[in-house]
Fold:
Amino acid sequence: MSAFPATRLRRLRRTPALRALTRETTLAADHFIYPLFVTAGSDVRREVPSMPGVFQLSADGVLEREVAEVAQLGIGAVILFGLPATKDGRASQAFADDAPVQRAIRLIKKAAPALAVVTDVCLCEYTDHGHCEIIRKGVADNDATLEALGMVAASHAAAGADIVAPSGMMDGMVRAIRAALDTTGRTDVAILSYAVKYASAFYGPFRDAAESPPAFGDRKSHQMDPANVREALRECELDVGEGADALMVKPALPYLDVVRAVRDAFPLPLAAYNVSGEYAMVKAAAANGWLDERACVLELLTGIRRAGADMILTYHAKDAARWLARA
Ligand code: PBG
Structure:
């Protein structure tokens, strides 16, 4: 290997064309999954205060217009979160056929058939206590929750979802959902497991958007400790064994080493979730004129891809797709 002065790495950085030829990582709208918050009611388009540019939308013409725009921008998929009209101890609106998410799936499949529809499968937006689990005699019950998660996934699949994405970090959730899908004849619906989800402070704004903060306690007994990476590989191994079709690491930016570790250890498609708090930080700094939003967003999304993610769940998807189209 020759060294300086024969070798000069700046030669291939000299022009935009040379830089494009030697670029190692690509970023495109079809890698993006855009999160949508679907609320009960009609004609609702309510901005989330801590997430400028993100809206709670009703499952009617409002949502139709939104998904038409998302599809037109070349974004690959949407992931749906629901804000039901009522909450209870059984999370019954999570698997009701006329609830906002179920209605939204049917509407999107008509209005934008090319979009892949992913659904978040968790109970926290639907329980009156805001926890991801069914609570029995004051105790969070993992195994009772599995049955409910199977019903939620089956109900999303019946409405037309392509992919269900369990996010509750329950032990055995992928196995229970695969069984529920297969016994209801939905063998072709895929499971994207939030296999590696940390107990993160960066979910703060999401809990405003989804109106789903826990009424007491926290989620540390089921979400992962931010300090652990070997445990992340065990989570993935278990979910792969239970039948996961794709894996997710969440959040993205403080966990890029985890994205890389999962990428290197498993051949499955891998998603990373650029979460609400990561979005809010960039938006707040940009609103103050402290950061160049476009440059920062494209850099951080490229970083997530370089770490090894195939797909990126991001609230920046629409803006980034527009910037990439013009670049
Ligand atoms: C749970 C869920 C959460 C997020 C996605 N799915 C919140 C939580 O675990 O408290 C967070 C996403 C984000 O912060 O953008 N259904």
Notes: The mean pLDDT is 97. The radius of gyration is 20 Å. The chain has one domain: 27-326. Residues 12 and 21 are 9 Å apart (CA to CA).
